Hints:
six-stranded mixed beta sheet, Arc Repressor Mutant, subunit A, Rossmann fold, Membrane protein, four-stranded mixed beta sheet, alpha/beta, TPR-like_helical_dom_sf
Amino acid sequence: MAFVLQTFGGLKLVDPEGQQVAYPEKGLLLLAYLLTTKDAAEHRTAMAAFLWGNEDNSVSLVNMRKMISRIKLRQKELGVELLSFTNSMILIDRLSLSSDMVWTTDWDMAEPLPQLSKLATLMHRSFLGQVGCQSGEFYGWVAEQKDRQNALLKALLRKASRSARSEADAEVLKDAGILLLGVEHADSDTLQLLVEVFHAEDQVDHLSKIIERRSRALARGADLVNARANRGMRETAPGAGVHARPASMSESGFQAGSEKIRHQTVPRLVLLPPSDHTGRPDNRFLAYALIEDITIGFCAFNSLQVIAHHSAVQIGHQFEGRNDFFERHSLSYILDSRISDRDSDGTLFVQLVFFPDNEVVWAERFSLNHPDLVGTRHLIARNIALSVSSEIERHEAARIYRELNPAAYHSYLVGRRHLNRLTLPDLRRARKEMKTALHASADFAPALSSIARTYSKEWLLTARGDIELLKSAEVFAMRAIDARRNLADGYREFGVAKLLQGAFDESAEAMELAETLGPHHADIIADHADTLVHCSLPGKALQKIERAIELNPLSPDSYLWTAAGANYALSEFETSLDCIGRMADPSLADRLSAANWAMLGQRDKARVFVRRVREANPNFDLDTWLAAVPSKEQWHKDLYREGLKRAGF
């Protein structure tokens, strides 16, 4: 059996027994590169430039000699010669090594669906992960591999779309189609393929607008960067330091640097909640809501990965173990803030720290006076973007408040404070504040989608089955979509409202759009996973919720509850119980716990949870409750009913 080089989800070498083995990182990069060459060989000088750049050829060759010695020693320990060396060449033994870089080989197009599913699964993970290589040759090679990867995805999708038969086949096609939507340059040929995949012949205009919006955002971003480059970045905020472009750099040099940045691993950012040195509740609430809102806004950037607000709040209140958390989750940048009373209205001091070197790369102070909040949000977003990279994909959601009425934004922030508390009085207070925001700005999309959320949550809390609440949620979600079609929240709330009404296909489609527009928004991905559970697609749901947990490591209970439900539907009852056990309040899932224990044959344990459910809700009726819980497939309903019946309900 051969060793395996894994390149998706991190770069590592696995031995024939399936165990990861140590190997020099730059040796792993050599393996990856040489597997993509025609002759399985390359000159030493070329590989030295690939690994260390062309700045000092003599230094690169010295580094290469040292690395070759380390590789030879490690290969002797492993008992395998994956790489061999002559005075001028480096060669790879392809018989001793396989790889997940599937686009480098000729796939069997006679079975396109399984191959498409495998490729899509790989592409959901980061290619190479974080590696210590920053040469232009490396970035160019990575770009080439991603182009080949995208080309194979498109070819397999086209071939598979002609042979798909079942609903499971259709899900594979849709998943690949969503991935293809993320490709920057979607031509008319790609658009037509997506129309066929999504059976959306009557929605060509809608899909065209999605792709056109992405193209326009990229064009606007390029125009903005070039304009700043021509002015020598004179308006960059003080403190940007080495991240600002020197005025002497040529435009071609700047664009080349941008190309390098574009192909780096996506940096991860956490926005910590502000510390309060004033003790003034109004300032504290507004500053917290502002930081949360900035976090959500950054989720729309494909070139930046943001730790979800829930995790940021929890780690923000912990001082011990904070650095371990940052290292464990590969965080590059920390946005730290504190509230002070330097003026009568209070101020918010914000600084961006490059975590590996503990370097403050940007800092600024903002007034918490209400009319300034819109400008504050935009300024923070702009300066962080400029500090992290020279070119960030300028999605519309990154600038949503530029022309907004400050009074509307203030009411919206106050409303969000109430929306975070799931009680009926708080939901209604949130709705009142959001409607006040609409009086100031009738097409304020975030307020419209938030009102939709209040109605859906009220339907869940009251449990009366009031269809008018869901209809209201649907109406406000559609108004949010009409106001700003490029924001994810409107589609998300429309999907939730449709799910609770049992419109599974409409809900799933809306959630796919929401996740496409907010690719790193953990809560949206989690809501999408919940929808897939109710659509009786637990395997897909589990993949989604694992991605949400990756982005929001200190996950709220709702994520774990969704994971538990997906595992139950897969008959993974012990895993389901483990997910419930990790919840802060496991009692929320007592019915599911009872069903799990019953299906494991532990009826005594199941009855403990049955008693707890009946104590909390003496009028609980199994048939009435099962009728209210949406599940698309009968087998799914029957499995849940069986577990609850065995438990004693």
